[in-house]
Amino acid sequence: MRRSKKSRTAAATGAPEVLFEQELEVFRTEVETALQFFYGFLAIHACAADTPAVHRLLNTAPLFWNSTLGALQTSTFVVLGRIFDQSSPHNIGILLGLAQDNPSIFSKAALKRRKLASAPNAPSWIAEYMDAAYVPKPADFRRLRGYASKHRKTYLAKYQALRHKVFAHREITDATQISALFARTNIREMQRMLLFCLSLYDALWQLFVNGRKPTLRSRKISVDRIRKRDVIRGRSNAVHERVVEETEAFLKAAATVNMQLRK
């Protein structure tokens, strides 16, 4: 992945740490937005497919629900491009470039300063905390960029044309051509791309805020697995899991009311 001009000149501005923190927050909002749209889209389809009462509910207002599904699908592809396209002013390459080009952001001195500024009682525990803090090596960022590059290549090969020529801009109108573009996509693959981005955000946030080694942890991908598990309402923190839980809870509650009104 090429490093952006923005990441190369960050140090020259005198505020690489501030710029990295800003880009990290933008990245979080973009990734969580894409996950909300995509998993909301999948959850509606899944719930309607195996719950007859929900299917009947959606058919009471088919134009509205088809419009909702279309909006969620379109929005997912638009945000996906903002994450992976290098022409986007805020993208995954800019974020990783800032991290790799400015190692002082993650030094023990910088972490200590941030901790002392954020926690009033930090002087009582900061020495022991800093002993355990992790300072990233160039290999850490090469590894993360390698994973990001792999997913970006997938995006370029299978999703960019659909995003640019169908959803963001109406360059292709022929149904056969559009179907051919969709045939190259894969729901599971798209889930992996977006959940990688979420894990990347968490890894960089933990490194920046807590001085922890940047590790990409695995996440629940399947909508069916999220729906079937026994979850106390509000317990899940991951946005894609929450949107599935909330979508199903709402649709089933609304379907119950619809059945009662029809009696």
Fold and architecture overview:
The chain is mainly alpha-helical. Helices cover 72% and strands 0% of the residues. The chain has one domain. The protein has 13 helices and no strands. Helix 2 packs parallel to helix 13.
Give the low-confidence spans: 7-14
Helix proportion of residues, in percent?
over 70%
- Strand count, sense and closure of the main sheet? none
Number of strands: 0
Q: What global shape is seen?
A: globular
* Rg, alpha carbons: 22 Å
Span between termini: 60 Å
What's the rounded overall pLDDT mean? 92
**What is the count of helical runs?**
13
Strand share of the residues? under 5%
Name the quaternary structure.
single chain
SS-based structural class? mainly alpha
Count of domain modules: 1
Keywords:
single chain, 263 residues, mainly alpha, globular
Furnish the topology, listing elements before pairings:
Blueprint: H1 5-8, H2 16-50, H3 52-58, H4 62-84, H5 92-101, H6 108-118, H7 126-132, H8 138-158, H9 160-168, H10 175-183, H11 187-210, H12 223-228, H13 239-262
Helix pairs in contact: 2-3, 2-4, 2-5, 2-11, 2-13, 3-13, 4-9, 5-8, 8-11
